[in-house]
Structures are given as structure tokens and as C-alpha cells.
Design brief:
By secondary structure, this protein is an alpha+beta fold. The protein is 50% helix and 13% strand. The chain has four domains: 152 residues, Roll (Ubiquitin-like (UB roll)), CATH 3.10.20; 247 residues, no CATH class; 110 residues, Creatine Kinase, Chain A, domain 2 (2-Layer Sandwich), CATH 3.30.590; 127 residues, Four Helix Bundle (Hemerythrin (Met), subunit A), CATH 1.20.120.1560. Bound molecules: adenosine-5'-diphosphate (ADP) and magnesium ion. Magnesium ion binds next to loops.
Amino acid sequence: MAAIPEYFGSLVFDDRVMKATLSAKVYASLKKTIDEGSELDIGVANAVANAMKEWAVSKGATHYTHWFQPLTGITAEKHDSFISPSPDGGVIMEFSGKELIKGEPDASSFPSGGLRATFEARGYTAWDPTSYAFIKGKTLCIPTAFCSYGGHALDKKTPLLRSMEALNKQALRILRLFGNNTVKRVTSSVGPEQEYFLITREMYDKRPDLRFTGRTLFGAKPPKGQEMDDHYFGVIKPKVAAFMEELNEELWKLGILAKTEHNEVAPAQHELAPIYTTTNIATDHNQLTMEIMQKVAARHGLVCLLHEKPFAGVNGSGKHNNWSVSTDAGQNLLSPGETPYENAQFLLFLCAVIQAVDDYQDLLRISVATAGNDHRLGANEAPPAVVSIFLGDELNAVLEALENDTPYIGAERTQMRLGVDVLPKFNRDTTDRNRTSPFAFTGNKFEFRMLGSSNSIACANIMLNSAVAESLKQFADRLEGEKDFTAALHDLLRETIKAHKRIIFNGNGYDDSWIKEAVGKRGLLNYRTTADCMPHLLDRKNVAMLTSHGVFSEEELHSRYEIMLENYCKTIVIEANTMVDMAKTQIAPAVMSYTADVARAASAKKAFDAAIPCGYETTVVKKLSSLTDRIESSAEELENAVISLADAEDIGTKSVMIRDGVLDRMGELRLACDEAETLTAKDYWPYPTYADLLFGVK
Ligand code: ADP
Ligand code: MG
């Protein structure tokens, strides 16, 4: 393999290729569109399309596709070939500006939550020039947004771009107040850390639960789990190392800045982190990363599990969304500065985030809500479903000093006068308490840790960008026109800290006492399940905020509410059906056959000599017989609970019926089956066990 710099980005139509293949005029015009969002004329589009095609064909591409992110959570593509008939009976390879800019997939089967009646099934895709085109296999992929003909967003990219625009607009207002008239653009950046499990293909194929639902629905606790902490950052096994090596190469070719990889806490769990980049691109890249992980795993006889909770009893997988805001001049607005002026600005942005997270806790919780992620957030696993911010003791002390006009007691005792004093240098807090926080300040960025491993990062960043844009808007509205800016800023920050400090929690988020305090004393929200939080997407305050910044229309929010709950319900119903099927057709028969063999063995012994004791056999037969009955009755009850869902009038009611009636019954059935697994001889058990799955990759 060539050196990395030689092939990095070799499958991307990036700035280097654009410069090399476009005329200076076309390049300048495209660059203006990319940087400033200006309109692209058709002449330029034609030239770009032609250059893209020439380049793609030279790399072996035969097709192109508008690559988009519908609300299914995965990406979608429909391939068209470049060929066009020529008069002499042959073909020429063609790709026009029109085809580049707009596509019309017959996409009637994508979820629209009622936004698009199926008779007007056609939505359209529109080129997003801010994210580079790339080649996957033999196809040129053009990142696009996906909308209905009525102009409603049917995807995740459209609102994400809108939220970035909202943040840009409000942040610029603030920077102007600080006298900065040169910055042209403010963008949010993200580095998402992706967790995943690797298991062998062979074992995966034997488990219907993994194949149909991505997680194990049964499985007794293995003799060894993660209690020894010997996997975390441990030596990477050869098979896994080979997978990671190839994964990196594939990602690098696509210009994805894969940087760090290591073993995670749970056995068979790993993590990959890229270097951060603009949110929009980070989102596209993360989608591609998840896709390529699965493809590369398949080539190595492995399966990559992206589910949030593939195994009960060991850690689930999340995705840490490291988020910051910076200017086109390269200044990170969440970085404490060197001068009093920079500090004041930093404190304003910090307070804007604090207010945003407090005011829109619900939206942040909603943005990561899926049936899979509920197993982490709502259960006894970190981070909790309660949203709070970790600042660390030092920064916290700075805010307290600011709030109370008292000296800041840090390493040395200093007064914190806004606009006069320089902030003390604080150390980056890396304590355990920090790691339990759903939303932690880590020196120059916030790490939002509630995302599930399979989530698109779009949703979380849409809400984060929008909520912070709203705080900044309120701040700008108040500060613009103030004569004494520093005094007004000081008052604003003090009031903001006072009003929103309840969201700051620097303790251990795993503690039960924290949840009591958060909910009881502080009045923070604790929406444990998707069914609990999703209706609040339509709360007036949330609709008002999101529509006022042009991120969503009211109709779009309604449709998303429907789609998210539909997803939740469908996911759990599939799980329930899979459980019933596995229990009835494989688990119960296996247990009965073992029970019968034990009983036969016992009667053979008795026939041989009635005096031979058969205590063990008797106990096993009795226990397993009663467990078989329990399996039968629990499966029956679960089946009925699913059947009764047909009575639900709407999706909200259905999701509540699932939360209250289906999930518990799934738990009951699992308990009976897992207990039976511990008593049944391994040879009879129809599935690879947890020990096989978790320790199977060599
Ligand atoms: P850890 O969280 O494990 O301590 P790092 O802080 O090095 O690791 O980075 C984790 C992720 O955060 C990486 O994807 C990294 O690129 C990203 N990151 C680092 N700085 C920033 C920043 N200013 N804005 C957004 N993401 C960042
Ligand atoms: Mg991290």
C-alpha cells in the first residue's frame, strides 16, 4: 500500500481535484457557492458536472447517485449510469449540470410522516456543494438534501444545514457587538467518537435475534463479563487489528480523518474517533463510517454491531459528539482566551450553551431517543436520561465568582472582573465524574455523550445548534444598543448563571442520589423512554423556537414526531415477535428435549437399580418443566400484548402501550429463557452463548 498522504482522499472530488480540473473562473464561482452559499448558475454547474464525471470515470466509476439521508436513519442511493446513446450505436459517458443539481428519486417508500401523500410520491434531491462528492465502489456519490415538492424537508441534512445557518447568523451578531467586523462565517464542528462491537459472522448467523434486531434478546450472563476491565485499551487481537487497518485505509481514501482506535470497556467492544470537522461533513462522514465498518467487517468474517445495547449486562455503545463553534478566521469561540476581551467573549458563549442546554433539555433528550438508546439512557447505565452539564470545579468557581461578584478562589485568589481580568488557566478535568456526565466541557469543546452508537449525529447537532442560536439571539437582542456594553454584559452573564445554574452538575452522574436531586430539588427533566420524551417535540416552546430560526416548519415537526414514534413502535414489535418465535420454535423445544433425556436417564437408572438416587435429575426435570411452562405462558402474554396494539388510536397511545405493556413482558420471557439456559446442557442449546459471542473473535 502506498504512503497515506498519497492515497488520502483519493476517492474524493475535493478542493485539490477541483483546482486541478476546473477553469479558474468556474473554480472561483463554485468556491463562492461552497463558502458563502451563493447561487450556482447552470453554466458553472455543467462545467463542474463534466469535470466530476471525467474524474470519476478515470477512477473506474460507471454510475452516479444522489446520496441522501432519509428519516430511516441510514443513507439512500439510487444509481444511474453515465451512459447515453450516441448516433453511431455506441454510448458516450454523460453527466449534466442539471443532473448534478437536482435529482428525482421515485422515493415514495421513504417515511414522510404524512407530509407527502403517496400519490404525489416524488420528492427531489438537491446537491449540497458544501460536502464533497466521492466514489464508492463504481459509483460517484453526490451528497444531497431530500425534500418534498412542497418544499418540506424529508431528510436530516436539510434541517442540519438550516440550524448551522441559524447559529452562524446569531453568533455573527454577537461577534459584531465585540467589535469584530471581519469574521464572515461561524460554523459548528464535530468530532464523533464511534463505539461498536465485533463478533464472528458464523455466530451472528446462528442468532435470529441479532439478524432481525441487531441485539441479543436472550442470553444468560457469561462466567466472565467486563468486571476485570482487562479489555479497555488492551492489546488489539490480530483479527480485529486487520479489520481496523483495512477500515482506516477505506476511510482515508474517502477523506475521512480516522485518527484513534482502541478497545473499549466491554469485551468485543471498540471505538473509532476521527479528527473533528464541520458538522455537516462530520455527519456525512459518520454515516459513511458506519456503513464502511459493516462492509469491511464482512470481508473479515466478522459482523460489526452498531446497536446501542447488543448484550445485556455489559456496557452498551454510544457516540460522543464533541462539539465546538469557531470562526472562519480559525478562532474557537469555546476556547478560553489569552486576553480579557477574549475571556468575556468566551464566557458569553459558555453561558449561551448553559442556557441552551437548560432551556432545551427536552430537545436534546429527544434528539437521541430511539428504542435502542433507551436501554442505555433510561437504564442503569451512563449517561443517565437526565441532561446536565459538567464544567469542572475550576470553571464552576469562575462562574460562581461572576454570579456573586466575589473573588474567584482558584489556585491563586483573583478577582474576576469582566473585560479587565484574564481568566485563570484551568486544567482539563479528566476525572471519573466528568466521564459520567451527559454534557461535559472538556477544555475547548463540549462533549455530548447521550447519542446512541447507531444514531445519525444530525439530530443531536440540529437541536444543539438551534438551542444555542436561540440563546445567542436573546443575548444579542438585549445587548444591541446598550451604551455601556461591558456593564450590560456583566449583568446578562450574572443573570444567566443565576437562572440556569441548576443544569450544572459536577458530581457523579451514576449516583442514584443524583437522579433524586436532579428531579426533586432542581426540577430537571427525566424522560426515561422514547415514548416519554417524544410528545414534547411538539410543546409550544419547542415549536416556537425551532420555527422562529427556520430550522423546521410546524408540519415538519409533526411529521418527525410521527416517524420517530413509528420507528420506536416498529422496532419493539419486531423484537417482541422475534422473541416469541425464538422461544416457541427453538428454545422451548430444546429445553423439552433435554428435560426428556434427563428424565429418561433417570428412569433408566431406576430400572437398573431402584436404590440409585436421582436427586440431580429430579431437580433439573422439575425446574426445567416449570420453566417450560413459564416460557409458554410468557410468550403467550407477550403475543397478546402485541396483538392488543392494534386497538391503539394513534401512535402516541401505541408507544405508551408498548412502554407499559410490551417491554415488561419481553423482560419476563427473557428471564425464563435465560434461567433455562443455565440449566440446559450446552449441546442442546440452539444458539451461541454470551461467552461464545463476546470472546469468540481471536
Ligand atoms: P477524548 O475525548 O478521548 O479525551 P480528544 O479530546 O482528543 O479525546 O478528542 C475526542 C474527539 O474530539 C476527536 O474526534 C477530536 O477530533 C474531537 N475534538 C477535539 N477538539 C475539538 C474541537 N475543538 N471541536 C470539536 N471536536 C473536537
Ligand atoms: Mg471522549
